[in-house]
Amino acid sequence: MKDIFHGLISSDSIFKNKEVLRPSYVPDILPHREKQIRELASILAPALKGETPSNVFIYGKTGTGKTAVAKFIGKKLMEKGKELGVNTNFVYINCEIVDTQYRVLQNVANHFIKVWEERVPFTGWPTDEVYSRLIQAIDRTKGVAVIVLDEVDKLKGDEVLYNLSRLNYDLNHARTSIIGISNDLKFTEFLDPRVKSSLGQENMVFPPYSADELCDILGERAKHAFKEGVVEDNVIPLCAALAAQEHGDARRALDLLRVSAEIAERNGEKKVTERHVRMAENKIELDRLKEVVKTLPIQSKAVLMAVIIGEKYYDGLTTGEVYNIYRDICKIGGINILTQRRVADLISELDMLGIINARVVSKGRYGRTREIEISAPMKIKEVLEKDESIPDLSNYKPPLQSRLL
DNA sequence: CCTCCACCGGAACTTACGGAGT
DNA sequence: ACTCCGTAAGTTCCGGTGGAGG
């Protein structure tokens, strides 16, 4: 027992630097994004000459390098600014985490206010007070500020955008540029026209990566992440091909590669092979499933549990049968009972999430209903049984029906 | 060909709740 | 502290329907 960690730590790892494979890592080289980098740079360049740069909107699906390019540019801009003696600031905000008007303004403002000065508190100030502090703070820099709003569609209300977009009108000595990043192409359609025109001065679309491009990206990262010769030749093309099937998501490709290598390492193997990639594919899918199930609302969990139980007792499980079992589960667990109409919707939602398969079939005289199937019932059952909101059902038997098996 | 089951699925309505304004 | 929206979740009501069995 003394050495339980031996072989887990000291085993000569196949990784050189695993961090490189994490999605948050910003590499020095971004293959196949040279065009976008140049374009964004040319939009922001006037800033270094003391002119006002345009605001930019960046679209693109997940894992197309939007965030990486934005952060990369930010880094380069800071470097160039220092070189030219221009005061440049780069603020990155993820609107999925910082999602209200007040907190965005607070975050941006505090970026410009030194730690020892009076910072904007988490709560308490009127919003316009925060705004005027922000103006003061930015103006004082007499330089250029680039503010990146990642996942900007997650923002609650478009007033922040309006306020930020008119920053330049209120500034006397400094200049700002807002970069909005979104994976929803239709996002601006629902925006206030004033915001739309001032923020959408420039638009950029990041296309998905092709399999070949993903190969280059993975290859580039693998050079830094792994030791020499531990990854077999066909591994990277396979990861790239699998990710390209989805929608050219680089994040997914990197995850595949990383998880494959982790599996190989844990098995104490010296090389990452195609087999590990297949295992990784399964593991990622299963992890996703487990995560989705875990974060489901209680009602959906109860419905899902009913499906798992019903699937064992009935052949061609129908909505009505699921509903009966669901009602019993709710009674046992003291959960609110919803109407069948609502439960039918929950079943559709579970179907959308890919946890179950529900298709409408007609059984003639015996009505028209959904036939419900479930993938990986045992794994999902495991997750649900650990859930304290779902009661213990080990002694439960579904109601007897004529077509009970 | 007609009937009629057991649901589907649209629509309008009711709570419930959180943020914004005052 | 209070009111006033906007949104999400859920309910009520109901017309619609594919096809086995008569």
TL;DR?
By secondary structure, this protein is of the alpha/beta class. It contains 15 helices and eight strands. The chain has a five-stranded parallel β-sheet with strand order 2-3-4-1-5, sandwiched between helices.
Write the SSE topology.
Elements: H1 34-44, E1 56-60, H2 66-84, E2 88-94, H3 101-112, H4 127-141, E3 144-150, H5 159-165, H6 167-170, E4 175-182, H7 193-199, E5 202-206, H8 211-225, H9 235-246, H10 250-266, H11 274-294, H12 298-313, E6 317-318, H13 319-333, H14 340-352, E7 356-362, E8 368-374, H15 377-386
Parallel strand pairs: 1-4, 1-5, 2-3, 3-4
Antiparallel strand pairs: 6-8, 7-8
This protein binds a DNA duplex (22 and 22 nucleotides) through α14, β7 and β8.
Q: What's the pLDDT, averaged over the residues?
A: 87
Tell me the major beta sheet: 5 strands, parallel
Helix content: 40-55%
Task: Return residue spans where pLDDT drops below 50 for at least 5 consecutive residues.
Answer: none
What radius of gyration results from the CA coordinates? 27 Å
The backbone outline, from C-alpha atoms, is globular
- Beta-strand fraction estimate: 5-15%
Number of strands: 8
- Widest beta sheet: strand line-up: 2-3-4-1-5
Q: How many H/I helical runs?
A: 15
